[in-house]
Amino acid sequence: MKILKLSVVVALITLSFSCSSDDGPTTSGELTGKWYYKEYKVAGQTIPYDDHEACGKDYIQFNADGTGANVDIWDCEIDAAPYTYTRTGNNITVSSDGESDTAQITELSSTTLKIKVVYDFYDDGNDQTVIEVYTRN
Asked: Which PROSITE patterns does the entry link to (predicted)?
């Protein structure tokens, strides 16, 4: 009986180490810089971002001093909406025009930023969980 209990304990310890979160996406990358809109993932669907102009791509900018901007290129003109932000672990809080929203960073690497946020994506009166995907290029 002692051998069986010892075997179970060893098996559980082995499983706990082999199931570490190292296999998942990383969130420890560098947030600062330009991140270009790529796509949205909503309710199991991937929706490509299709509002880029031929003369420039829309992006979000995170500066090292806690400021940033949501930049929209419209008719080859830059329309920047400034904001401030704070990052605490995997959460990022963005404040603009007296309002603040918090989102969860689910992936952050040198090339990809994924943010999980809840809002009314379809403008139908119901909130959806949205994964916003950005790239460096």
From this structure: PROKAR_LIPOPROTEIN (PS51257)
Distance in angstroms (rounded) separating the CA atoms of residues 90 and 49: 24
* DSSP code string of 68-110: EEEEEEETTEEEEEEEEEEEETTEEEEEETTEEEEEEEEEE-S
H or E segment to which residue 5 belongs: helix 2-18
Q: In the CATH scheme, what is the code of domain 25-135?
A: 2.40.128.280
Q: What are 63-101's pLDDT values in tens digits?
A: 999 999 999 999 999 999 999 999 999 999 999 999 999
94 - beta bridge partners? 85, 101
